Every structure is written in C-alpha cells, then in structure tokens.
Task: structure prediction
Amino acid sequence: MYRELDKKIAIVTGASQGIGSAIADVLVREGATVIVVARNAEAARAKAEALGGDCTFFAADIAKTDQTRELVDFVLNRFGRIDILVNNAGVSRQVDFLDITEEQFDQVVDINLRGTVFLAQKVMAHMIEQNYGRVVNIASMAGERGGLFAGIHYATSKAGVINATKCMAYRGGAHNVTVNAVAPGLIQTAMAEDLKFSTDGIAMGRLGTAEEIGEVVAFLASDRARYITGSTVDVNGGLLMR
Result:
C-alpha cells in the first residue's frame, strides 16, 4: 500500500491528547515516524507506544527554549533528519478582557506563539540545510475573527501564529521548505465537551473531528502540497467563510 509520508521523520508537539494525538495517528498511518512531544512524560510515552514502530517521545515544555533545543538534538541524534514539524502544542484560557492579568497573557503567548516560533527556528535551520522540510502550524479560527470562547491572549497568539507562518514561508521557500497553518473551528475534543459548543452557524451542522484536522495536516506535509506555502487552511465546516 502506498503511503504518502513513508520514512518521513515528524515531530508533533502536544501530541499526547486531543488534536495533536489525532494528527500523530494520521501521520503514522501515512508512513511517518512520529516523535510525540508533550510536557507530561508518561502521557507522551504511552502515546508513542500506542503508535508503535520506531515512534518515540520527548517530554518538553515548548515555551522553554533550552528544552526545545534538547528536543531537536535528540531527534537529529536518533534519526539523522527532521522532515516534518507540526506545531500543535497550545493552551487556551477563558478570561474576560477586562480581567486578564499580565501573567495570564504572557503564559498563553509564550506557549502558543513564542514556543512555536523558536521551535520552528531550530527545526527550519536543519531543514534548510537538507533542502527539504514541511512545517505545519496549528492556528485557530480565533486568530482570524477574534475569540468567541477564548480570551484575548489566545486569539492574539493564534493571529501571531498565522502571521509568523508567512514570515517562515518566505525564509524557507527557496530551500524546498514549505510552511503553512491550519485554522480549526469548533472541534469535538474534551474541551468542547466541557464548553458545550453550539452548532448554530456551522454550515455543515456539526462539530469537526480531530481526525479531520489530522487529514489536512497530512496533506500539507505531503508532496501533493509541495507548491503551497504561507497559506492558512480553514477547517471549520463553514462557520467562517472567506
């Protein structure tokens, strides 16, 4: 059976649960070896074991640049290359704009935006050297229209991810490194169950699934998407149309 990502080495952050876990599943199905990255070492280990094959894990907080440097070194030492980076790790906190503190703002931006930028910087340096790479940054519909459910810190961080994606794409393009973003809408996850999202306004009349996000990521990581870069792909069932 032909698998589009056969023998590719992929880092997926925040891959022990939710959307990141589903992304890892789809990439492995398509032949990739996935390094599961999460702050919780036991959860990351369990996910890597469930994926099987040569998949492994690395416990890291992507907001801490020393840990992301160790992550990149670990992958290169073990596999010799990095073909795909999926920047999925992120946090969301519901806080009213008038109540948000500097500490709360910084915590979310440090993980969602700063961590994404500086992990991509380290990985792309290697990808440019090998003249091949695929980076997919997980943004959000909140970064395009403002936060309906999340706070200003989350929406602002995801807007930054969309713009950072374009900057990265300019830098990598001449070296066969594509960089794109995926902007999920309302996705059925544990968080969605807690928030009880309404399907009102969604053209397709339902929430999306984490696997559907994974399918789009796998496409962008494949050679079928080799001439797509600097783009943001909306996956929201028609809740936001452009």
